[in-house]
Amino acid sequence: MTTTSATSAPKAPVRCGWCGELEDYCHYHDNEWGFPVDDDRRLFEKLCLEGFQSGLSWLTILRKREAFRRAFANFEIDKMARFTEKDVERLLGDAGIVRHRGKIEAAIHNAKCAQELLKTEPSLAAYFWKFEPDPKSRPKTLTPEVLRTFTTSPESVALSKDLKKRGWKFVGPTTMYALMQAMGLVNDHMDGCTTRAQVLKARKAFKVPR
């Protein structure tokens, strides 16, 4: 009689500590956060949502993301730039999003700023990726302790300063660093995180927009 050894269970993925065990966070961490992005609509969406997150948790915004997309014309820059005061009032009455007049008006204002930027830049992606840090400037070891100290970088400060000079709102250095983390300009998945290697592979295959 031959016995068959039990099949070992697959190893659970190792994740960055910030996502915990919440399904929303885990899916976002495994499939989006840190992967390089060159799509203008996605970059603009993230910039707007980071502005709405100010003072709130990203989980709150993540769970409202589909409602935000419906409310803000899927964050299509040209469509948002045409929003009027009537749209602001509509958005203030939308319980699916964060109903903060200043943030709503800033998102619409930034769409107009994006249109102006695109008169001199080939794309939003080409503009944002100019602020990618030199990999040699990044820490060689990314432990949870090290990562907790990352809230800004010289590049996020420079990006923030340039956007503010162009008239953009809700684009502080911390907000811009969060954008850089999410959109893959930096890979802040901790050492040992299962997704870190996937992001590194994606970055090697990624063509930086120019």
Structural class, from secondary structure content? Answer: mainly alpha
Structural domains: how many: 1
Distance from N terminus to C terminus (CA atoms, Å) equals 66 Å
Describe the global form: globular
Instruction: Label the CATH architecture.
Output: Orthogonal Bundle
Within CATH, the superfamily carries the name Hypothetical protein, domain 2
Annotation, overall tally of beta strands: 0
**How is the main sheet built?**
none
CATH class: Mainly Alpha
Average pLDDT for all residues:
93
Rg measurement, Å: 19 Å
Percent of sequence in beta strands: under 5%
Would you write up a description of this structure?
- The protein is mostly helical.
- It has a single domain, classed as Hypothetical protein, domain 2 (Endonuclease III, domain 1, Orthogonal Bundle), CATH 1.10.340.
- It has twelve helices and no strands.
- The chain has helices at residues 23-31, 40-53, 58-63, 65-71, 77-81, 85-92, 101-117, 124-129, 144-147, 154-165, 173-182, 194-205.
- The longest helix has 17 residues, at 101-117.
- The protein is globular.
- Residues 1-6 have low confidence and may be disordered.
- This is DNA-3-methyladenine glycosylase I.
- InterPro entries: Adenine_glyco, DNA-3mA_glycosylase, DNA_glycosylase.
- One of its GO terms (biological process) is base-excision repair.
- Zn(2+) binds at residues 16, 29, 189, 193.
